Amino acid sequence: MPAIIKKMKKGKAYYYITQSGRVNGKPRIVWQKYLGSVEAILQKYKEKEITPIKPSETVLFEAGGIATLLKFAERLDLINLINEILPSKGQGPSLGHYIVLAALNRALKPVSKIQIGDWYRETVLQRLWGFKAQAFTSQSYWNQMDRISPEAIVQLQNRLAQQIRQEFHIDTDALLYDTTNFFTYIATHNDRSEIAKRGRQKQKRNDLRQVNLALLTTTDFQIPLFHTTYQGNIPDISFFPDITKQLLKQREIIFGPCNKATIVFDKGNLSGETLGTLLYSDIQFVGGIKRDLLPDIFETPIEQFKDLPFLPGSKGYEHICELQGKSCKAVVCYSESFFTQQLASLTASMAKCEEKLKTLQKSLLEWNLGKKRGRRPTKQQVKATVEHILSGQYMKEIYTVKQSFDGATYINYSVNHIALQKITKARLGRTLLLTNRKELLIEEVIRSYRELANIEEAFKYMKNRDYLRWQPAFHWTDQKLKVHTLYCVLALLLVTLARKTAYQAGVELSMTSLLDELSAIKEVALIYSQEGKMHTELTLNRMTPRQKRLAELFDIGTVLEG
Questions:
Q1: Sign of the dihedral through C-alpha 66, 68, 73, 75
Q2: How far is the C-alpha of 21 from the C-alpha of 3, rounded, in Å?
Q3: Digit-coded pLDDT (tens) for 118-161
Q4: Which CA distances in Å does 162 have to 75, 165, 457, 502, 551?
Q5: What percent helix, strand, coil does the chain show, rounded to 5?
Q6: DSSP output for 535-547
Q7: Half-sphere exposure of 75 (CA within 13 A, CB side)
Q8: pTM exceeds 0.70 for this model
């Protein structure tokens, strides 16, 4: 039998492994192998122990962003909510899975429906959900999207808003309202879409048909509660009265009477007619209004403004006034930074106007001296040219242009310094606000209005090339465009909830920075091949301290364990 024996040589112990047997009836060592000293044996053992078995293959999967946003989708019970409204039949992914997958994709790496199955395969979702990537083909998506009616979208929003309020304890007493638009590549003669129309395109693509989106969000973290998609050729000012009633009616159904709900909106939504509708409704509001509605209040001397210690660089003036038979509070806010921006813009506009007027003056002089050939401009053409040159804001007030047409056409121009001084002293840097909540302090009115900058930031994210992108929308019917907008807004919802949670835990990041950090967290699959058998071990890649903090905060490890 085998045995280990020790032999002493020059006072040192050396070890052998031996095999004994009988030779001629007597026990003898028939085989032996030298092992070495204790130190040598220990060293060989350690080397063998620490030599790793190399994996035959390593695969990275999108994990951090998926796990985080999926966690918030689960907290909202989003898949089940969708399936309760529109139950699925048969095997495979449910409608809820299709919509949540589309929302996750829009949030993290927007691709077309043709590519979404490949993207799904590269994420941890395939392991967590267990569906094959082939289930998420573009045709499957079209079929599932066909099932979602506009009424179902409204019902889902109502149910979801209740869930958001209960789960995340958000404040809905004040809501931000704003609109934006997205251009599409829907052909001009495609008559299957009534929503996609040409209008004033905010991305300057007036050559393309566009879709308008109205959004109502919370003031904190701009969590979207309601949205609606409407025709791209309807101006904000025309759509505002109807959409306000519609969205706040939904809020009342979900959260109870809205006598405390205050809607905050920008001045581009308000006209004299819509103001009257708003004043005689039960809607409380804080909104920007145009100077023309209250010019005397807007141009109040700056000496009458008071400093606002909690709003550095700002001054305020308030006045109780009556509009269309209703008592309101008007607030004029003066901002040093806004003044600087407007003054720079005014100076640039003046420089352009002066250069164009000088060029026109010189050109007319050459005509009159016979130094220029061709047809002489008519009086109407000169007037039209001057009108166009002075079309910018304040330019008609600042520049005085005299034209003479006695036999020859001349112009002379000059700066009206009195008008320029008035504009600089009484208009620049000012914003006129109006509210029917007269009990609000100046600071509260201004602070509420300034929150609108955040919802505009959210719209910028929806036009981002990397995350949360609405475009491109490869759809050409109104129903599909509305469903596309639905999962784009759901993507925004999940990310804003994640950002809110991170911020409250002390991790203050923009939405883009948060998604950058989460997307850098990958699941590493180490695949081993031993004796014809495959074995896989899962782990996460090396993380920065901030990524570790986010992984702990969002409990990413638990989500990945399924």
A1: positive
A2: 12
A3: 999 999 999 999 999 999 999 999 899 999 999 999 999 989 98
A4: 12, 5, 25, 22, 28
A5: 45, 25, 30
A6: EEEEEE----HHH
A7: 21
A8: yes
